[in-house]
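Progress against Task 2.4 (sequence-to-structure conversion) is shown through the following example record, which the project officer requested during the mid-term review.
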Amino acid sequence: MKSKIVILVFVLALSGVAQAQTTYIVLEEDFEGLTLGASPEEAAGTPGVWTDTPPPGWFVDESGVPGIGDPATDGVADWAGWAFTNKDWWVDVAGDQNRSQYTLGQGTVAVADPDEWDDSDHADSAAGGWYKTFMETPAIDIFRSKGGTVQLKFDSSWRPEFDTDYHQTAETHLKSAFLLEPDLIGDGLKLLNWRNVSAERWVELIPDTWPARRRLLSSLAGSGHRTEALALLEEMLQLPQEKEFLGQAASWAVQWGDPRLALEAGERWQAEELANRRGGSSLARATLAVARVHMTLGDPAAAYQAFRSALDELVGRSGPSSGASLELLTGMATVYLQAGQIVMAQSLFQKATDLAPYHAPAFLGLARTERRAGNLEAAVDQYREALRLEPEDERVTTELDGLLLEMALTPKRR
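Structure tokens generated for the chain above:
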């Protein structure tokens, strides 16, 4: 497969009711049409392996290469900016160093190689600017293309290579920036990820403050480093934490595949809410988080015990039909419904409707449970009651319409 750049355009042609989709290429380049000559300095004089002349209409800007224009200070001339070379020769003459792992490129490839360029004397990069080179395609006519239909595709490979001092200096600057302005952490960590800096180094570079560590957790998980994220989360849970963090930690741990860590965070959150004796809704949310994790771990008895103790506490605080009590009751019913325990879900939703015949979420949950159980007529009745209580709830309208359509399309059994 050649190293190539392809720009595709998808056009939808309409004619009456007939529709046809066409894809056409407005630019394609694999560099195989270039005439390769002798290498100037790298294994000097090797024939048929190198050129710095791009395809017609293309433009290479090498003005950002330190010392360019002076053969005595422009490094290895072959790599002073973008060049076009035989891949196998380039891999061999550079001693490979993982260049052969660029398997998508074969034959003639476009190369910007500051590592090889650096092997000969050049102007000081720190003083005059680091190696930069750009390549532009010809102007591309996309006048006939519909908006949002043009695609750019290209094969590429990039590998980092730093001088030790440069790498350490960059990390020092990043660490100072994070201390001065924590809001930069998200973008800074994206840069580290792009530069292939190991996730273990991220932890060392981030200030040991609550806002910084929280951003680090999100960035680690968002970049696919869930193992490191869970390790950091477990470390943070060894310290006293605010209730809001405990709730977030429980959610993160579930998402990242560690229900036992989620249970630890959730139970601490629930214990603090029980001790607080204020904020009934937050106790309901904490309890539901714990119950969900218990169900995930296959322990429905523990889930019910967590629910039952919290419900008794809320009933004692504010009564069985308070907003917090109903939130916990319907929430736990939903947990059972999601787990496929229809009888328990039906029982709790029914209890909620008995306690509060004005509580639309309980009727909606009961409707979903009846539908799941195959009691479609009963489900319609509950949907209609939920809609009577909350006529603006689009979820109820959508689900009821869908159920009625399903019933109309399903032949009745005789």
